[in-house]
Specification:
- By secondary structure, the protein is an all-alpha fold.
- The protein contains five helices and no strands.
- The protein has helices at about 5-15, 15-35, 45-70, 75-85, 85-95.
- Helix 2 (about 15-35) packs across helix 3 (about 45-70).
Length: about 100
């Protein structure tokens, strides 16, 4: 499974994806409001930053799974993810997710 396929799988099957995106959007919008008016980002740039946060946050999980699964076949990945309750563990992590204070 490629990284892009992995992200698509998570976005379609992981209910914590929306939690992450909401928290990341709130973080980026708060950060943006603290910028000087002339330097504030347009909404598209804020959303791009949120998307980058998501892809960077999921990379370590993908790398760990890739080491364990040792196959490029998507159904092997899905089988492993389901058997090892990866999404459940990820859901618990999302519940406690905080991006910290915005300076």
């Amino acid at each position: 499974m490629t990284y892009k396929e992995f992200l698509n799988y998570l976005e379609e099957n992981f209910d914590g994806y929306m939690v992450f995106m909401e928290k990341a959007t709130e973080f980026q919008e708060t950060k943006n409001q603290k910028r000087p008016a002339k330097s504030r980002w347009k909404e598209a740039k804020v959303q791009k930053a949120v998307r980058e946060m998501w892809t960077k946050a999921m990379q370590p999980l993908y790398d760990n799974l890739k080491r364990e699964i040792k196959s490029g076949i998507p159904y092997k990945w899905i089988e492993y993810i389901e058997q090892h309750e990866v999404l459940e563990g990820l859901r618990d992590a999302m519940a406690d997710l905080s991006f910290g204070d915005v300076d």
